[in-house]
C-alpha cells in the first residue's frame, strides 16, 4: 500500500462572490457569502483522498469552531488526523473574493498554521512510513526543510507546491522530487518569463517539474528537459479556487497508484515509490487535468473537488 502524508495548512475559507473587484476606497455589494473548508494543504489532502489515495495530514488548527469543522471534514474524507495539533491560536482563514468571470483574489491569515515550526516525533514517524510527502509554502519554511530531510533519509518521494512564493534556502527546490508551480510562480522562482524555460530550470538536477498554465494546460519537464505540453480540458469556469490544489491532489494520487474511490487512513508502512517514469507522470497529469477541470465548474475549494468515479467516467 502506498500512503501520502500532507504537511500543510488548514484554513476556513470566507468566500464572497461579487461582480468585480472594488477600487481602493470603494464599497460594492457582493452577491453571496459562504464558509468553505480550505487551505492549500487541506485542499490537496482532500483532493487526493477523493481520488482513492490513503492520506494522513500533518498540521494545526485552532481550538475553536472552525478547527472542529476542519477536523470533522478530514475524518469524513477518511484522512488521518492523528498528527493534527489543536492550537491556542485561531484556525487559519482565507478571505476570498470571487468575481463573475470565475477568477479570484485571496488574503490568508495563517493563525494556527504559523505554529507548525517543527515536526513532532509522531509526525516524523508518519512521514518516514509514508510513500509520498506533499508540501506547500503556507507553513514556516524551517519545518518544510526538516520534513524534506526526514523524507529523503527514508526514501520518501517529495512534492512541493511553491505557493505562496517566498524566499527559499539555496538548494531547497533541487532537493524536492516534484515541484508544481503555476506560471506566475514559476517565473518568480526562476526569473524566466517563458514557461518552457522556467520548467527546464525548475527540473534541473533530476527533479520533475509541472508548470500549470490554467486554460492552456501544463508543461511537464524532467532533468532540465521539457517532455511536452499536456492540454487542458475545455470547460466553462465558475470558480477557479483550489483548481491547482485539485490538480496536485490528482497527480499524487495517481502516482501513488490510487485506483478506486475508497480511501482509508493508513497506519501501515507505506511502500516506496520507486522510479517515476515518463509514462507514469503523463498519465498522472492526464488524470489530474480532468479532476481540475471538474472542480472549476463548481463553487468553493474542497466543496468543488470530484470523486474518483467522476473523473473515471470521463476517461473511460
List keywords for this structure.
316 residues, 9-stranded mixed sheet, 4-stranded mixed sheet, transferase, globular, single chain, alpha/beta, UDP-N-acetylmuramoyl-L-alanine:D-glutamate ligase, nucleotide-binding, EC 2.7.1.15
What does this structure look like?
With 316 residues, the protein is of the alpha/beta class. It has a single domain (3-23, 31-315), classed as UDP-N-acetylmuramoyl-L-alanine:D-glutamate ligase, CATH 3.40.1190.20. It is 31% helix and 25% strand. The chain is built from 9 helices and 13 strands. It has helices spanning 40-50, 65-76, 121-128, 141-153, 183-190, 195-202, 243-255, 278-295, 308-315, and strands at 3-7, 11-18, 32-38, 54-62, 80-87, 92-99, 104-109, 132-136, 157-161, 178-179, 208-212, 218-222, 225-230. A 9-stranded mixed beta sheet has the order 5-4-1-8-9-10-11-12-13, with helices on both faces. A 4-stranded mixed beta sheet has the order 3-2-6-7. Helix 4 (141-153) links the parallel strand 8 (132-136) and strand 9. The longest helix is centred in the last third of the chain and has 18 residues, at 278-295. The two termini are 24 Å apart. The model has no long low-confidence stretch (mean pLDDT 94).
Amino acid at each position: 500500500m502506498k500512503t501520502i502524508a500532507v504537511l500543510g495548512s488548514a484554513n476556513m475559507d470566507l468566500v464572497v462572490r461579487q461582480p468585480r473587484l472594488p477600487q481602493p476606497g470603494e464599497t460594492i455589494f457582493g452577491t453571496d457569502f459562504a464558509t468553505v473548508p480550505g487551505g492549500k494543504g487541506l485542499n490537496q489532502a482532500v483532493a487526493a483522498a477523493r481520488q482513492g489515495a490513503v492520506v494522513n495530514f500533518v498540521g494545526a488548527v485552532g481550538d475553536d469552531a472552525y478547527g472542529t469543522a476542519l477536523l470533522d471534514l478530514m475524518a469524513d474524507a477518511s484522512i488521518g488526523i492523528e498528527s493534527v495539533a489543536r492550537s491556542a491560536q485561531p484556525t487559519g482563514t482565507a478571505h476570498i473574493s470571487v468575481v463573475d468571470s470565475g477568477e479570484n483574489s485571496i488574503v490568508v491569515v495563517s493563525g494556527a498554521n504559523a505554529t507548525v515550526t517543527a515536526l513532532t516525533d509522531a509526525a516524523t514517524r508518519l512521514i518516514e512510513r509514508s510513500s509520498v510527502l506533499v508540501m506547500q509554502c503556507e507553513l514556516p519554511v524551517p519545518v518544510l526543510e526538516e520534513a524534506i530531510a526526514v523524507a529523503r533519509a527514508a526514501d520518501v518521494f517529495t512534492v512541493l507546491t511553491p505557493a505562496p512564493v517566498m524566499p527559499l534556502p539555496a538548494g531547497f527546490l533541487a532537493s524536492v522530487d516534484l515541484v508544481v508551480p503555476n506560471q506566475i510562480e514559476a517565473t518568480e522562482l526562476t526569473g524566466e518569463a517563458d514557461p518552457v524555460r522556467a520548467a527546464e530550470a525548475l527540473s534541473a538536477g533530476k527533479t520533475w517539474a509541472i508548470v500549470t498554465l490554467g486554460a492552456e494546460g501544463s508543461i511537464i519537464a524532467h532533468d532540465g528537459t521539457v517532455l511536452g505540453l499536456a492540454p487542458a480540458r475545455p470547460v466553462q469556469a465558475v470558480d477557479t479556487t483550489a483548481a491547482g490544489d485539485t490538480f496536485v491532489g490528482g497527480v499524487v494520487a495517481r502516482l501513488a497508484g490510487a485506483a478506486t474511490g475508497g480511501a482509508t487512513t493508513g497506519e501501515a508502512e507505506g511502500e516506496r515509490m520507486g522510479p517515476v517514469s515518463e509514462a507514469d507522470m503523463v498519465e498522472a497529469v492526464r488524470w489530474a487535468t480532468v479532476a481540475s477541470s471538474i472542480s472549476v465548474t463548481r463553487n468553493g475549494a474542497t466543496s468543488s473537488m470530484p470523486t474518483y468515479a467522476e473523473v473515471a467516467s470521463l476517461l473511460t
